[in-house]
Amino acid sequence: MHRRSFIRVLGGASGWPLTARAQQAMRKLGVLMIGTEDEQDSKLRIAALQDGLRDLGWKDGENIRIDYRWAEGRSDLIRRYSDQLVALAPDVILANGAPVVAALKPLTHTIPIVFANVFNPVGMGLVENLSRPGGNITGFTFVNPDLVGKWAELLNEAAPKVDRAAFFYSPKINPFYPELLRELETASRSVALKVEATAADTVEDLQVRIGALASVQGASLIIGADGFMIAHIDEIAALATANHLPGISVYRQFATAGGLMAYGPDVPDIFRRSAGYVDRILRGEKPGDLPVQQPTKFELVLNLKTASHDWLAAAWL
Question: In whole angstroms, what is the distance from residue 140 CA to residue 117 CA?
Answer without folding.
Answer: 6
